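Need Ubiquitin-protein ligase E3A N-terminal zinc-binding domain-containing protein's 3D structure for a figure. Predict it.
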Amino acid sequence: MAENTLNWSAQLAVAPPQRGGPRLPGDKITLPQSALEQLLAAAPILPVSSNPRVHTTNFDPFNPHTFAAESRAREHIEQRQQQLPHPLTFRVVNPQNGRFVYAGIREFSAAENEVALSSLLRESLGIPDEDFKIQVPENDGMEDMEVDETEGQPSRTGPAVTVHAKQLPKGTYVRLRPLEAGYDPEDWKALLERHLRDNFTTLTVGELLTVPSSRTESFRFLLDKVYPEGEGICVVDTDLEVDIVALSEDQARETLQKRLERAARAPGTTSGSSVGGVLALGEDVAAQVLPGEYVDYELREWKPDETLQIELLTDDPTVSLFVSPVGPRQRGRPRRDMHVWGDFSSDSPKKLKIRPTNVALEAAEALYVSTYVDNQSSKVELSTSQPSPVKYHLRISTNDSEENGEENEDDFHEQDDVQCQNCRQWVPQRTLVLHENFCFRNNVFCSQCHNVFQKRSPEWQNHWHCPHDSSHGNDEFSKASHDSIFHRNCICPDCSAGFEGLPALAQHRTNDCPGKLILCQFCHLIVPQKGESDPDLLDPEVLVSGLTPHELVDGGRTTECHLCGKIVRLRDMNTHLRHHDLQRVSRPAPRVCLNKNCGRTLTNTGNKSLGLCNICFGPLYVDTHDPEGKALRRRIERRYLSQMMTGCGKPWCQNDYCKTGMQHKAESDSTSPPAMSVPDIMKVTRPLVDTLNVKTDESNTAPFYFCTDETGQHRRNVAEMIHAEGSIGGDKVYELAWCIAGAEAASGDIEKTREWLAKWAPAQGETFG
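Structure prediction for Ubiquitin-protein ligase E3A N-terminal zinc-binding domain-containing protein:
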C-alpha cells in the first residue's frame, strides 16, 4: 500500500502578491517547474498487468499466435510504470504558527524555490501582505537590507511554507455556517455550486469561504464539518451534499426574522414594491416602490407615427423615471446608470416625451419603463427596519400635437396694467405704488430663475443655483441630491471609464461602452458588443460596416448559401442574398409547353417551333421531310379525332377535347357526356388545327389540347391552383409560367413549389429594392 503513495515535500518561499500571485479566488497553488520533475520521479510505480488494456502496438486480439508474442514482448519492456494521482492535492503548512490548509494545483510556472498562493490560502495560513519586504543594497545607506547578487536588483523576503503531496478522499458531505444572519438558501445555492466547481479542488475544515453574489455583496461561510471525517476532502468528480447551519441560536432567530421581513416586503405585498408588468396606452397605474428597488414595466404596442408621453405623478420628488427601448442593440433594463431617457428632477409630474423620429426607437420591439427611489437620496426614514414604500401614478399616452409655444397666463393683462419692477407681476396702475411698497419690503426676486420669495422664508434662505448648469432648488436636500446625481465622479462597472454624473454614465453604457449587451444577429446570443479580442469601437471597419465589434468578428464565420450553395461570410450574407433578389426579379418568365394539359417547361428540350415538350411532341414525330408542315398538320388532326372519338382511356385525364376526359367530368357532375358524331367533332377540332403555325422556320403561339401523362397533368393542376390562390387574394401573385416551372422543379409537391417560387420567381409587379 505504501508503494502506491506519492511521497513528496518541499519548503518554498511564498511569492509576494505583486509578483505572480494568482488573482483568481480558490485553493489552487502555482509550483515551480522543478517541482513537477520531482513529483514525476516520486510518483508511485504501478505494474503493467494491473491494466490489462495495455498492449504492444503489434498486438492483434483476433490472432491466437500474437498472445505468445505479447507475453515475450512484456518480458523485455518495463513491467511497471509511473503514474501521478488525479487530481493532485497538497497540504500547505505555515511553520511559524502551525496553521495548515489543503490546496490543488493550478500550474507549474512559479519562480524557482517559490510557491504562489491565492489570497484565500494566505489568509488561511495567517500570512498578511505586510510580511513581504523589499531588500536593497547596504551601500545605499540603508541598514538590514541585502543585494541579490544574481540579479543585481533589490530582492524580496517573505515567509516560507512547507508543501506536502497528500491525497484526500472524495467528499460526500460538507456543513457550512454563515458568518452573518439573513442568508436565504435560494440566494447562495446556485452561486455556491458554481463557485466551488470553478475555483476549488479541496475543502479544509476551519477555512472561510467567500462566495461573491454581485459586485458589492458576497456571502461568507465557515467550513465546519466534512465527511469522510478528517482535515479535508476532495470535491472533484464527486456528488457533494451541502448543509447550511446557523452559527448560533441567536443568529438563527435573526436570520428567520430577516427572512420574514423580506417576505413582507416582497413585490406585490402591501409593504413591498409593486410587481410591474405590461402596460397599455392610456392605462393609469397606481403603484409603489421601496427605496433602493426598481419597478419594471413594459410597453409592447404603440403606433410608430405617434409621440409617446410618459407621465409619473408622485408626492415624493426623489422618485426617478427611466426608459429604454428593447431591440437588437439595446437589451438591458433601464437603471440609474444605464438608460436612454431619464428624469432625475424633483418636478411633479415628471414627463418624458418620445417622438417617433427619435433615432433610439429604430428597430425597437418594446419599451422598458422603470421607477426607482434611491436609498441615499430618499426622504423616507430609513433608520427603521421596514422603510415605507413611495406611492406614485404612472401613465403612458400619445401626444401628436407639437408644442410650438405654450400660452402663458401672465402675458395677458389689461391695457392700463403696469409691471412691478420687483416681482415682475402685472398690476393695475392705480395700485402700483401700494403694491411696490409692500413688494420691496417683503419679497425678493431671483434674477436667475425669475422666482419670487419672501425675504425671511426658509425657501429663500436655502435657495441655491448650481454653478455648472441651470438647476436650482430651495433646500439643502435637493442640492445634495443634485450634486450626487450630476456632479459626482462615476465609474463604469464594465470598462472602468470615469464620468461626471449619472446621466453621462448612462449615456456611455447605452451607446459606446464595450460591455453594452446586444443581441448578436449571427450567433443569436445576448453578448457584450465588444469582447477582449475584438477590434475597437472606432475601428474603421466597424464604423463602415455598421456592426458592433463582436458582430464584425462573429460575422467572419462562413456558411453555405441556401440558394446557390456558395460559401459566404455571415456578415456578407445579406448583400449576397440581395444579388439573388436582383437576379430573381430580372429573370424573364420561362417558356412552357403550349399543351394546356401539360405542366412542363421548354428550358432545355422540346420542339421550340411548335412550343411542345418532348412528352407531348413524341407521338407526332416522324423523320420525313415536311418543310410546309402539311403532314404534321394531318397528324395533329388525326390525334384530335382519335381523342374525341375513342378517348385516351387514362384514369387521370381531364382534357376537355378527349372523350375520356369529358366522361370523367360528367361523372363528377352527375351528368351524361354529350354524344358527338364525326361531323360534330370536325367542327370542334378544325378551328384548333387551322390556328396552328406548323412551318419549321416560324414559331407557333396557338395552344394545344393533347392528353398527357399523369406527371404532367398533376404538375399543371398544382401550378393552376397556386396561380389561382394568388389571384383570389394571396400575398403574392405569380405568373402561371413561373408556377409551372416551380411545380416542375418541386416534382409536383405543392409546399415545395411555394418555397421554390418564394426563392426564385418574381411576383407580379415586384421590383428590386
